[in-house]
Amino acid sequence: MKNLFVSMFVLLSVLFLVAQVTEAAVSCGTVTMKAAPCLNYAKGTDSAPSAQCCTGLTALATSAKTLDDKKAICNCMKNAVKNIKGVQDKYLSQIPTACKIKINFPVSLSVNCDKIN
Question: Of 55, 36, 38, whose CA–CA distance to 94 is shortest?
Answer without folding.
Answer: 38
